[in-house]
Amino acid sequence: MENALTEPLSYSRVSTYNECPRKFELKYIQKIQEPSHWYFSYGKSIHAVLERLLLCHLGEDGQLYGDDAALFPTSLSQLLDENWLTEGYAYPSDEDRKRRQALRVLTAFFPVFQSTWPQMVYVEHLINTQIDGIPFTGIVDRIDRVNDSVLRIVDYKSARPREASALTSHRFQVALYAAALSQAEEFQGKRFILQTYYLRENLKAEMDEGAENCIAKSREVLATTAHRILQGDFRGKRGSKCLSCDYRDICPVFRRI
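RE: above sequence
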């Protein structure tokens, strides 16, 4: 598998490999498709609305406007309808319930978004770079300028942080993005604040002090992961997630559980 890095690594790929190397092999090397799930559609729908919001302008009255119409509150529903994805829902009633939930989430978040809008300098910022010689790609949801020397890296999550391990993984994601951004001349010498924003709870998890250590650790994890992939180490990892894994029916590790 010496050609396993013909495609750049990303947060999703690194996270998948460390969850289970066999899952990484099946998904990214053998290219076996996962089935559709409602939570993929739900998260993509909310992110699409957030991206549309960022194309708006701030009026003198402090409201966000798309063209000449104030966005709050009725246009949020329209934006959600225009960007709603339907794949993966088992029943129409489930889809309707999740759509109403998504609208509540966006409505609750809108004042927060509105108050921090002037700080934003980039949205859906594409990264294609190398970190310590390792090809890396990703899309940063949002970059804020706190002051001339400090930037805030923001990633939005539509899922709940159910476990401490999820919080650690999500922090690792924004740390990787900061490591990648620091390679660009525009961002060199900047200090980064790492933020994950949980939309359903309207809650932010932010790291300022200690961010540099977290960024350094993310580079170590990336290097170790890349090395193991290049070595062809795709041994399956048994764990609690095996029961819900989309590849369990073709995984020899699961069949031995």
